[in-house]
């Protein structure tokens, strides 16, 4: 029974939502709106679930003295501080805004900025034209990188000043994005979409049940 | 020498990258920026909107992408306020609310735009798909108040705005897959016209939608931000960052070329 009810609900809602897409009837529209509104009410529960999971994970790390368990106290400190200030006083509170602008924003931006250093180091060490495929990838990457910044066109215009073509670095980048990239992306999108459709049908028909837990 | 070059300490690379970032920031460098077709398309679309039109601006990014996407938001907001185009802003990302509200208030103060008259900031609601679909039927069903707690019924700008039918364009400033969600649920389902400004790493994903016309323009990373600033004649962070970016890109290109020359020369000698 515990598994049957979700399966039946999934089947009914799946079929009904598909049916509403094919009918402009007011009842069909009303059903669609009600289901969407219902989903809006359900979605905040994901936040509760995420918070509970975060607390469970870090409490376990502290209790088991896992690697770097001390950092879990920092997670709790951050969580409790933001909740204690944010929930009663709202996001426009001065202290909440100060913490956000002066702690979270710089830390997040710093984490992301570090990527530039690692990408540069990794590119220098690993980007070698060892095979034909690697050479193609390397040349494409260099063209896109140069086309992505104004200096690319400047370099091109200086080096190729004897030709009638100007600003070809950005033109080459656009050609790569509009042709080989677009073709490959479209293939991926079609493949993913077909996969989503088949998986949805499997879920609606109750063939795919892993979302219920238990793995079958 | 060659062996040293091939296995160069990564800390040297880090120092070179740091210098390539710091020096152009200290020395005022201004490289000419040309405009790519997707950015021009978005600019032309907004320019062609008549006075009193409304655009929806989704701040779907957090602090990590703030430097790349906020210059786009600023330039676009300035263009809208200059042209008397109303802006309904919102975010689908939980940590985007404070960033978005601060940025809107800053630009509004500069352009003398009034909250509730020229712009509305709706804030955040959880559930990307549900929020997009919900606003298609009625914005009020998702956001009953704005970010500042004012009922939507009491906001003059929202008097004639019920759902996407009254929105002329949605611009999604995104650092994740929200643009695809807007296209699937708002464009396909409700015919809402969509444009986007995305981080550099996401640009390649957007080209299929540009080609089909599902995207009415695209700002590509910091280059797109600089291009848009150039179009709206604003000298701001986008222009500054693209100059810094130029030096880092040149450095990486040089490092890759030097690395390959050293590697192949060494291999040839070993043979």
Task: Give me the Rg of chain B, rounded.
Answer: 22 Å
Distance between the termini of chain B: 17 Å
Output the CATH topology of the largest domain in chain B. Answer: Rossmann fold
Number of domains of chain B: 2
Q: How would the global form of chain A be characterised? A: extended
- The side-by-side strand order for the widest beta sheet of chain B comes to 3-2-1-4-5-6
Largest β-sheet summary of chain B: 6 strands, parallel
Q: CATH superfamily name of the largest domain in chain B?
A: HUPs
Terminal Cα span of chain A: 16 Å
- Order of SSEs of chain A: HHHHHHHH
Strand content of chain B: 5-15%
The overall pLDDT of chain A, averaged over residues, is 89
Order of helices and strands of chain B: HHHEHEHEHHEHEHEHH
| Greatest chain-chain contact | A-B, 59 and 70 residues
Query: Can you tell me the CATH class of the largest domain in chain B?
Result: Alpha Beta
Beta content of chain A:
under 5%
How many alpha or pi helices of chain B?
A: 11
Quick summary:
The complex is a heterodimer of chains A (216) and B (271). Chain A has 216 residues and is an all-alpha fold.
Overview of this protein structure:
The complex is a heterodimer of chains A (216) and B (271). By secondary structure, chain A is mainly α. Chain A has eight helices and no strands. Helix content of chain A is 78%, strand content 0%. In chain A, helix 1 (4-20) crosses helix 2 (26-42). In chain A, 12% of the residues are buried. Chain B has 271 residues and is an alpha/beta fold. Chain B contains eleven helices and six strands. Chain B has a six-stranded parallel sheet with strand order 3-2-1-4-5-6, with helices on both faces. In chain B, helix 4 runs parallel beside helix 10, helix 6 packs parallel to helix 8 (178-190) and helix 10 runs antiparallel to helix 11. The model of chain B has no long low-confidence stretch (mean pLDDT 92).
């Amino acid at each position: 029974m515990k598994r049957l009810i979700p399966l039946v609900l999934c089947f009914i809602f799946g079929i009904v939502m598909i049916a509403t897409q094919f009918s402009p009837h007011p009842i069909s529209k009303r059903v669609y709106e009600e289901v969407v509104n219902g989903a809006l009410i359900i979605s905040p529960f994901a936040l509760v679930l995420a918070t509970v999971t975060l607390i469970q994970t870090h409490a376990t790390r502290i209790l088991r003295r896992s690697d770097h368990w001390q950092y879990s106290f920092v997670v709790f400190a951050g969580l409790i501080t933001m909740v204690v200030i944010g929930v009663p006083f709202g996001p426009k509170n001065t202290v909440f805004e100060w913490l956000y602008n002066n702690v979270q924003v710089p830390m997040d931006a710093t984490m992301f900025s570090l990527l530039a250093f690692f990408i540069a180091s990794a590119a220098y060490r690993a980007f070698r034209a060892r095979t034909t495929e690697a050479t193609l990838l390397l040349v494409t990457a260099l063209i896109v990188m140069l086309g992505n910044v104004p200096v690319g066109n400047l370099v091109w215009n200086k080096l190729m000043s004897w030709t009638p073509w100007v600003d070809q670095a950005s033109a080459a980048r656009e050609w790569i994005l509009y042709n080989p990239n677009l073709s490959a992306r479209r293939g991926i999108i079609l493949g993913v979409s077909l996969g989503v459709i088949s998986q949805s049908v499997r879920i609606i028909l109750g063939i795919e049940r892993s979302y219920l837990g238990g793995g079958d | 020498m060659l062996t040293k070059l091939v296995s160069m300490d990564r800390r040297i690379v880090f120092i070179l990258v740091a210098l390539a970032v710091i020096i152009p920031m200290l020395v005022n460098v201004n490289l000419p920026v040309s405009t790519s077709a997707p950015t021009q398309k978005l600019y032309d679309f907004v320019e062609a909107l008549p006075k009193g039109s409304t655009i929806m601006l989704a701040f779907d990014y957090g602090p990590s992408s703030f430097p790349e996407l906020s210059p786009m938001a600023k330039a676009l907001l300035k263009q809208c306020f200059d042209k008397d185009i109303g802006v309904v802003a919102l975010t689908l990302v939980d940590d985007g609310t404070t960033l978005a509200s601060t940025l809107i208030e800053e630009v509004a103060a500069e352009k003398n735009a009034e909250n509730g008259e020229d712009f509305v900031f709706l804030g955040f609601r959880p559930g990307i798909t549900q929020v997009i679909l919900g606003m298609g039927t009625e914005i009020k069903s998702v956001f009953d108040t704005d970010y500042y707690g004012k009922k939507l019924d009491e906001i003059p700008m929202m008097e004639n705005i019920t759902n996407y039918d009254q929105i002329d364009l949605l611009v999604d400033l995104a650092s994740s897959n929200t643009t695809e969600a807007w296209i699937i649920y708002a464009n396909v389902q409700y015919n809402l016209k969509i444009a986007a400004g995305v981080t550099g790493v996401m640009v390649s994903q957007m080209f299929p939608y540009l080609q089909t016309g599902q995207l009415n323009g695209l700002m590509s990373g910091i280059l797109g931000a600089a291009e848009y600033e150039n179009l709206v004649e604003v000298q701001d962070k986008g222009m500054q960052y693209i100059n810094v970016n130029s030096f880092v890109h040149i450095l990486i290109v040089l490092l890759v070329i030097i690395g390959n020359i050293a590697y192949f020369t060494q291999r040839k000698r070993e043979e």
